[in-house]
Specification:
The protein has about 375 residues and is mostly helical. About 75% of the residues lie in helices and about 0% in strands. It is built from 21 helices and no strands. Helix 5 runs antiparallel to helix 6. The longest helix has 18 residues. The radius of gyration is 21 Å and the shape is globular. The chain starts with 5 loop residues before the first helix and ends with a helix.
Length: about 375
């Protein structure tokens, strides 16, 4: 499952089938089989395995949560909500269900309701990990609304809480490094670069490659081709030491360089490979995270940069199916419509995005881009 690809997932499925032969009463295998099918994009099969489980254990709250995750991936938000409500009733700890319901409200554009739901969960009874999960969900919603400064404060709070129990290297890579990405969204490229430089100084190869995608994002925003080229080269040299999960990110960075070099044929090869890898990546199982789709939006933008607006729109359609109120996806789709001469469709999407971003920071880079784009029409 970690390696992904059709061949790898077929092998994972076969391994679980063998486990089921050895122990037919192990219901958890149905949960694992569902996760494999979710990663493959076989949503009907994924739902079926979970129903097989629930036929035997109908009151298992965590499995209702998992079922909601599959329904979200399928784009059936109504069914997802029903599963989350079932989980809230059946679970000993309703926090996960409340987080899921808040994220679902955000997907539908009910951002105020989502934030109110999360605020109601804050209390002194939360343990450190629960508090991190709750603040993390608040951060996701803030990012979607363009409230980056507040999200930056929240991720710093999460970082301090994580010091209590998380290994330093894990915390540096999974939490502290996110701050540079947030600074980048505020146009603070020099600050973002300084922060990630400080983190990199504490790492040894090949761990330094885990921050390479932050560097490539920064250099892309700066328009620094040589900086981007240098980090793509560094990552390529140790690619065989990195987890397969990172392969689509590497492919996208190589494609970006090819686009800058005006080698569209090479760019398309890498973009198509990235799309294929993402389609069966472990990322597919992270449907309960609002920011997981950002990589798909980036891929769609790269297709647009490669003069393929039709593929861009195809990707964005899939994103908006599962997250109808994704403002950044709307803006990218608007640009693709404009590229095809579809002015009205583009303006409608652009205005929808700007409405969601009414509460965004003034220096939020996507808000500025959308405002400039509207002014140019």
């Amino acid at each position: 499952m970690a390696r992904g690809t059709e061949e790898g997932l077929i092998k994972a499925s076969a391994a679980y089938d063998r486990l089921l032969e050895l122990d037919p009463n192990d219901l958890d295998i149905y949960r694992n089989k569902s996760a494999v099918e979710l990663q493959r994009g076989n949503y009907v099969a994924a739902v079926g395995y979970l129903h097989n489980y629930l036929d035997q254990e109908p009151d298992d709250g965590p499995v209702h949560l998992q079922l909601a995750n599959v329904y979200q991936a399928q784009g059936d938000l109504d069914a997802a909500q029903l599963s989350l409500e079932d989980a809230a009733i059946l679970s000993d700890d309703p926090l996960q269900s409340e987080l899921g319901l808040a994220r679902l409200e955000a997907r539908r554009g009910q951002y105020d309701e989502a934030e109110e739901r999360l605020a109601a969960q804050l209390n002194d009874d939360l343990g450190p990990q629960q508090r991190i999960q709750l603040i993390g969900a608040q951060t996701e919603i803030g990012l979607a609304r363009g409230r980056i400064s507040r999200s930056l404060e929240q991720i710093r709070e999460v970082n301090e809480i994580a010091r209590e129990f998380m290994p330093p290297m894990v915390r540096l890579l999974s939490i502290e490094g996110q701050q540079s990405s947030f600074q980048l969204l505020l146009g603070e490229t020099e600050e973002a670069l300084a922060l990630i430089d400080g983190i990199t100084a504490q790492l040894q190869p090949p761990l330094t490659s885990y921050v390479s995608f932050t560097y490539t994002s920064i250099y892309t925003e700066m328009g620094d081709r040589e900086g981007l080229r240098e980090w793509v080269q560094k990552t390529s040299e140790v690619r065989d030491q990195l987890p397969a999960l990172l392969d689509p990110f590497i492919e996208m960075d190589v494609a970006r360089l090819a686009i800058w070099d005006e080698d569209i044929e090479a760019a398309m090869e890498h973009l198509d490979r990235a799309r294929s890898l993402l389609g069966q990546s472990f990322i597919q199982t992270l449907q309960n995270n609002l920011t997981a789709l950002s990589v798909q939006v980036t891929l769609a933008q790269l297709y647009l940069d490669a003069n393929k607006p039709e593929i861009c729109l195809e990707l964005i359609e899939g994103i908006l199916r599962v997250f109808p109120a994704h403002a950044h996806a709307m803006m990218v789709a608007a640009k693709a419509h404009f590229a095809q001469g579809q002015e009205d469709a583009g303006l409608a999407l652009l205005n929808n995005a700007l409405e969601i971003w009414l509460v965004a920071d003034e220096n939020y880079v996507y808000l500025q881009e959308a405002s400039d784009l509207l002014a140019s029409r």
